[in-house]
């Protein structure tokens, strides 16, 4: 699996919302150097096997033959003709993947992918996912949210709570939920049955705040960086607890009823249509569904014991990773050349060579992200190794993320592992001299082992 990702660049300054919301969808495509791109929202990352097959057929029939996952648990099709939006939309509507044309880009919901699967956590957040998605699509006012506005539904294990969402619900052991807005250091306590209405109310009050103040912002953290303007009167307020930030680990996961889930990481979040059909076949042997994670992987729940092993071997042989100590675990990269005109390098090719040169670590490694330009699209949240193309090589540094530790270079080897706590503004990395592409692999391997 890849690391916890920040769905948007860090920062507290509000963007100029006079610009059009350019987030791609399935009806309005984004033009890239390798053709048009469509982003299909998957609330909670939930897909039936039939929906996976529809997406695979669309990738082959309309696109470049592959599907890639995003840092919000969605999927993208690339290499599309510029005029295929209506044809793609018709396919997705028939599969139940486009319940509302007006709302398709605001259905941004991430959820704990192992909720209700492994016996951990305090709630099965899939119930929240379906209720929130239905409510978003049923309301007129929700179309005022931007394509960047994000809901996170955490079952209490603290995984998606670290994704810096606009509205975060965290299940608690006593059957309640904590509602966090933006980067606030406190949360409102609500009964679990009222969690989804409270999350919608928070989003509605965000839009009201924009209207009353004249603020132009896409995200709550931009309009209310200190977490003091948006309030939900009448609800108890609690300081956020430290969250363990436990992410799905590649490999089989035992459930409480004798069933297994397979957690598979996709190289750079990408697999061919044939690879996705294989995952759908495995899911059909289990619960009949799979879950796309925000960490460039998939979870296949509900496999019986006699099926988990054979399917794990078939999936691993096809390419998706099931080894938690593989160098590919926690590795990601932006599109790079030739797909992106801004990129200064073919970062995925360079990253693949670097990862092939590194052997299994026998330990969990720091996440690593290769970026073709300074925008660092899709980079992780928390602590991560930043590999930035410079045009004549790469700059390798460790970004410490939200906690208060000072930035450090790749030479500082001893670091205490920290839980995911209340994020603050991400700190800059210590700038490092550029290294050649050939030297980059060794620098990355050394930096990832500073965990």
> What is the gyration radius calculated from CA atoms?
21 Å
Question: Could you say which structural class the secondary elements and strand pairing correspond to?
Answer: alpha+beta
Count of alpha/pi helices: 9
Number of E-state strands: 20
Strand order of the largest sheet: 6-7-8-9-10-11
Strand content: 15-25%
Q: Can you tell me the overall shape?
A: globular
Distance between the termini: 17 Å
How helical, in percent, are the residues?
10-25%
What does the average pLDDT come to? 86
Low-confidence stretches: 1-16, 403-428
Order of helices and strands: EEEHEEHEHEEEEHHEEEEHEEHEHEEEH
Largest sheet: 6 strands, mixed
Keywords summarizing the entry:
451 residues; alpha+beta; 6-stranded mixed β-sheet; 5-stranded antiparallel β-sheet; globular; disordered N terminus
How would you characterize the overall build of this protein?
With 451 residues, the chain is α+β, with helices and mostly antiparallel strands. It contains 9 helices and 20 strands. It has a 6-stranded mixed sheet with strand order 6-7-8-9-10-11, with helices on one face. Strands 1-2-5-4-14 form a 5-stranded antiparallel sheet. It is globular and about 60 Å long.
Summarize the SSE layout with pairings:
Layout: E1 30-32, E2 35-40, E3 46-48, H1 49-62, E4 66-69, E5 75-80, H2 85-94, E6 109-111, H3 126-138, E7 151-154, E8 167-171, E9 176-181, E10 186-191, H4 195-213, H5 220-223, E11 237-239, E12 251-254, E13 260-265, E14 270-272, H6 273-284, E15 289-292, E16 297-303, H7 305-318, E17 331-333, H8 347-357, E18 368-371, E19 384-389, E20 394-399, H9 437-448
Parallel strand pairs: 6-7, 7-8, 17-18, 18-19
Antiparallel strand pairs: 1-2, 2-5, 3-15, 4-5, 4-14, 8-9, 9-10, 10-11, 12-13, 13-16, 15-16, 19-20
């Amino acid at each position: 699996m890849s690391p916890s990702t920040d769905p948007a660049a860090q920062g507290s300054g509000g963007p100029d919302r006079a610009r059009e919301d350019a987030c791609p969808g399935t009806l309005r495509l984004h033009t890239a150097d390798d053709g048009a791109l469509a982003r299909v929202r998957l609330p909670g990352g939930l897909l039936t096997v039939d929906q996976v097959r529809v997406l695979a057929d669309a990738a082959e029939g309309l696109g470049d033959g592959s599907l890639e996952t995003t840092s919000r648990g969605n999927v993208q099709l690339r290499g599309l003709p510029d005029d295929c939006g209506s044809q793609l939309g018709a396919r997705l509507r028939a599969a139940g993947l486009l319940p509302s044309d007006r709302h398709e880009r605001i259905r941004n919901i991430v959820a704990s992918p192992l909720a209700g699967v492994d016996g951990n956590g305090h709630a099965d957040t899939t119930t929240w996912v379906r209720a929130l998605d239905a409510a978003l699509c049923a309301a007129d006012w929700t179309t005022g949210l931007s394509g960047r506005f994000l809901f996170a539904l955490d079952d209490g294990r603290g995984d998606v709570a670290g994704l810096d969402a606009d509205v975060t619900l965290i299940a608690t052991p006593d059957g309640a939920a904590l509602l966090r807005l933006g980067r606030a250091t406190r949360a409102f306590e609500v009964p679990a049955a009222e969690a989804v209405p409270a999350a919608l109310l928070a989003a509605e009050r965000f839009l009201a705040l924009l209207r009353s103040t004249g603020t132009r912002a896409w995200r709550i953290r931009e309009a209310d960086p200190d977490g003091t303007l948006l309030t939900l009167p009448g609800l108890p307020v609690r300081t956020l607890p430290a969250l363990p930030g436990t992410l799905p680990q590649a490999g089989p996961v035992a459930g409480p009823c004798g069933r297994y889930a397979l957690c598979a990481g996709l190289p750079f979040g990408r697999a061919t249509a044939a690879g996705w059909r294989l995952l759908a076949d495995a899911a059909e042997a289990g619960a009949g569904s799979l879950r796309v994670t925000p960490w460039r992987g998939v979870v296949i729940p509900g496999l019986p014991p006699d099926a988990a092993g054979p399917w794990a071997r078939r999936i691993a042989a096809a390419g998706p990773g099931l080894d938690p100590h593989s160098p590919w675990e926690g590795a990601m990269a932006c599109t790079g050349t030739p797909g992106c005109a801004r990129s200064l390098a073919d970062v995925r090719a360079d990253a693949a060579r670097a990862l092939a040169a590194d052997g299994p670590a026998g330990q969990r490694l720091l996440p690593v992200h290769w970026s073709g330009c300074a925008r660092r699209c899709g980079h992780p949240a928390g602590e991560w190794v930043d590999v930035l193309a410079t045009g004549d090589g790469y700059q390798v540094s460790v970004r410490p993320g939200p906690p208060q530790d000072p930035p450090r270079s790749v030479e500082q080897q001893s670091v205490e592992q920290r839980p995911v706590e209340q994020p603050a503004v991400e700190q800059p990395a210590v700038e490092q001299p550029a290294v050649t592409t050939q030297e980059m692999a060794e620098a990355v391997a050394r930096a990832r082992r500073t965990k």
